[in-house]
Amino acid sequence: MATTTPPRSRIAPAAPATGNMPYEVVNGQVVEKPPMGAYETWIASRLMRWMISCDQEGRFGQVVIEMLFRIDRATEIQLRPDLAFVSHARWPRDRPAPREAAWDVVPDLAVEVVSPSNSANEVIDKLHEYFQAGVQQVWLVYPKTSEVYVYEAPQRVRILGRTDELDGGAILSGFRLPMAHLFTLEPQAD
């Protein structure tokens, strides 16, 4: 039986969790974020490896996994995409990441690997929050159906299946990943 998470509107304690549970801050309130499942983590790690291999020397920016971003200071929204890409245009190459809980920058690309614990409303709410903050593109990865929904705006989406190829477009130039490689059940030599 699949577990479900509480709606994003459910409020957790007002201070960050003290355990190992990742969290986000929505409307000034801490909301615990259940960790990804094993397969979803495997998919996110595989995707991250492909993204980094496209930009081995970090020419374009930084790829991070499970990073907390402060995407809106006014409303104190802090989101933790499963993967994100921050270009050097948004965070200069020679500027180190801050030594605090949330990175105060809006990523160019946010990637969410949707697991059984994610509700449809939660995913759509985050999609809108990302675009309102200035994220240029959002990828929703659905391991169960082997699909990636590539959003360039909340109402503009391309749906890619196993026979398609995911590309980084203007955000991550040169990134190309055959979808069959991403969703293979057995790791392949790349």
What are the main properties of this structure?
190 residues, alpha+beta, tt1808, chain A, 6-stranded mixed β-sheet, two-stranded antiparallel sheet, 3 helices, 12 strands, 18% helix, disordered N terminus, disordered C terminus
Can you describe what's shown?
The termini are far apart. The chain has one domain: Alpha-Beta Complex (tt1808, chain A). It has helices at 38-54, 120-133, 179-182; strands at residues 23-26, 29-32, 61-65, 69-72, 77-79, 83-87, 109-113, 137-142, 147-153, 156-160, 165-167, 176-178. With 190 residues, it is of the alpha+beta class. Strands 3-6-7-8-9-10 form a 6-stranded mixed sheet, sandwiched between helices. A two-stranded antiparallel sheet has the order 1-2. Strands 4-5 form a two-stranded antiparallel ribbon.
Topology, please?
Elements: E1 23-26, E2 29-32, H1 38-54, E3 61-65, E4 69-72, E5 77-79, E6 83-87, E7 109-113, H2 120-133, E8 137-142, E9 147-153, E10 156-160, E11 165-167, E12 176-178, H3 179-182
Parallel strand pairs: 7-8
Antiparallel strand pairs: 1-2, 3-6, 4-5, 6-7, 8-9, 9-10, 11-12
Explain briefly what this protein structure is.
The protein has helices at residues 38-54, 120-133, 179-182, and strands spanning 23-26, 29-32, 61-65, 69-72, 77-79, 83-87, 109-113, 137-142, 147-153, 156-160, 165-167, 176-178. By secondary structure, it is α+β, with helices and mostly antiparallel strands.
